[in-house]
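User: Predict the structure for this protein chain, please.
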Amino acid sequence: MTTLTFADLGLSPKVQAAVDASGYTTPTPIQAAAIPVALEGRDILGIAQTGTGKTASFTLPMICRLETGRARARMPRSLILAPTRELAAQVAQSFEKYGINHKLSVALLIGGVSMDEQTKKLDRGVDVLIATPGRLLDHFQRGRVMLMGVEILVIDEADRMLDMGFIPDIEKICKLLPPRRQTLFFSATMPPEITRLVDQFMNSPERIEVARPATTATTITQLFRYCPDGEDWAKREVLRELMRGEDVKNAIVFCNRKRDVAILHKSLLKHGFNAGALHGDMDQKSRMETLDKFRSGEIAFLAASDVAARGLDIPAVSHVFNFDLPWQSDDYVHRIGRTGRAGREGNSTSLVTFEELKLLKDIEKITGTTANWLGEPPTEEDFTDSLSKKRRRGGRPAARGSERRDGERSGRGERSRGGRSERDRGRGRPERGERPERERQEQPVAEQAASPAREREEAKAASPRQEQPRRERRDRRPEAVAEAAETPQRSGRDASRKPAPGRQQAQRGARSEGKSEGGDITAPAKGFADNIPAFLRRPVRRPVRVSEKSEDVVSD
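Assistant: Here is the predicted structure, written as structure tokens:
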């Protein structure tokens, strides 16, 4: 059923007045289909492409249902889960705009903000709790929030939750909520994991699908620019050329890595562009300030990672540039969805390198369109070579700079890169039976050098005494040690340690006394023998004691 105005959707007078004050009169298809069902208290599974007004689809009916009742301390009445801090903050702004005629208390639980201020709001009681999964579980484990009073649960951008690894946290949170609740579930795509989550935690949901999953808005003009060089500096030159176009008022430039965002931002500032940066390593205050400046027009260009690809509503974005093609084709749909919102016209231009041609094929499959090239397109041979190269690498294309980083991690550094570049230049393995030129040039020098075995033989012949310590180590048996104690060596360095005449006479006297008493030496000699441990000394031969009985037998 198609509705022409918001007045036909059954909103309360206060909410209708707030919508009229905002200047909206005609709802989007997802709003027209979802708001009446949500006002009845039924579960909703909403599937719609980005930029179609999903936020108002659950914000307006939630405000209507929360008009009656009162919040209790640490027990929120409704819960909205968002994948990123920016999207959660944007949902909070929607409640402030549409709930201007209500006295609803709203709490925002996101990272990068003091937990003490968030705890104070929870202690006073909140009607609407907007949170990211990680921060919500952190507060719950500390006992600062209880979820048994939640009446309405909203999960926004569920497919993004899946990409960021939040599905286990979502399952844990859903098990903490009361079973009798209303659940509103919104997603742009429906992968199998999301379908399983819907079947587990929703009660006969009303499926509302206003567009084919992962489709782009028809108001967006999509162009692609082929960059055969593939180097980042060459791509930045092409990007600056495109950004200087007459119809480019402001734009978001997406990169795959946070490091590339910082490099691109620095390059844009160097060339005189009024640009800002947005990525996950920035603190929350800097991220919010950058977004506010971009919304107000103080910043014309925003270099961003995929943290800005989902759910951000900045209506006046004229262009989106993809400095890198996203690794996941679904992210392409969300990226270009930052322009052409709410029926406006938008433009997107993506830079494509030789290594990214396979990613382009995946984007064409999911969008159902053929790439429209700006400038000279790649040839069929380029596509064939790119796909075969990917297969040899094992499927997924290697990211730019991965060889350099791998070399740094493994400790090879420039040497590994140099060897690889030589093979790429065609200096490959020599033919069988033919020596490389470099080896032929170095052969006379190699022949003059002695082999390791020859060096050892020459060293052995030059210094035969070097093996003497090894013979001494092999002869360190107890018997050998004792013999060494009796007759110390008089050659080599031991000769310099010849005992003094007085000391030598004392040793002889000790040996003569030992022989006269028992026949053997009972005490070790002085000097070198003093260092012999007790367990290495020769055992003392004691005389055998013969009993009287045995002597009688012998005498008989």
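The chain has two domains: 6-209, 220-410.
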